[in-house]
């Protein structure tokens, strides 16, 4: 369970959000929604401990994430705006690298995973030569190669076409059905219904909302 209590985020003396509290339980998919610049990425950076909140606390399984970072990071898969793939390696080599980080998945068929993300026939191409959407697909293949219960995904669908979004939505449902958590942000409309998708809406504060 991920619990955030009374989070306040300040950037350059400007309050992005104040006293934001939420709980995400195993099996939930939650989308953070709001216009450009409202603070979605900033919220994710707080939640994963990359920056400190101005006020508030973040708990994983009732333990503050600052108390046991190592345990928290073992449970977390975070994909940010950058793809995090190595452009000089092929799609397959990138996956082989990710697989080495997850020994429990050493027997998974990487060709099959590349086919699942729509890269059959592109396995041996240097990723720098792939399109933006194909590069994003290589990065997203990591979702098939981990045991982490908590997925935090910052705009995972950037440059991904509709059929790719559908594949990922199904994967999120599968992850949630197994007790995982997906916390994501996207500007795309998702086809998941209210039963499967909750939302945290961030709104632009008043112009004079300064500390
Ligand atoms: N490191 C930083 N230092 C100062 N200001 C920052 C920093 N990071 C973000 N900001 C500011 O905080 C605000 C929120 O940025 P953030 O990236 O969280 O928005 P977002 O909701 O994710 O936007 P988008 O939908 O465009 O990705 C912006 O006005 C941005 O300029």
UniProtKB/TrEMBL annotation:
GO terms for molecular function: ATP binding. SUPFAM superfamilies: P-loop containing nucleoside triphosphate hydrolases. InterPro entries: AAA+_ATPase, ABC_transporter-like_ATP-bd, ABC_transporter-like_CS, ABC_transptr_haem_export_CcmA, P-loop_NTPase. Transmembrane segments: none annotated. Keywords: ATP-binding, Cytochrome c-type biogenesis, Membrane, Nucleotide-binding, Translocase, Transport. Pfam families: ABC_tran. Residues 2-211 form the ABC transporter domain. Gene3D superfamilies: P-loop containing nucleotide triphosphate hydrolases. This is Cytochrome c biogenesis ATP-binding export protein CcmA. It comes from Psychromonas marina.
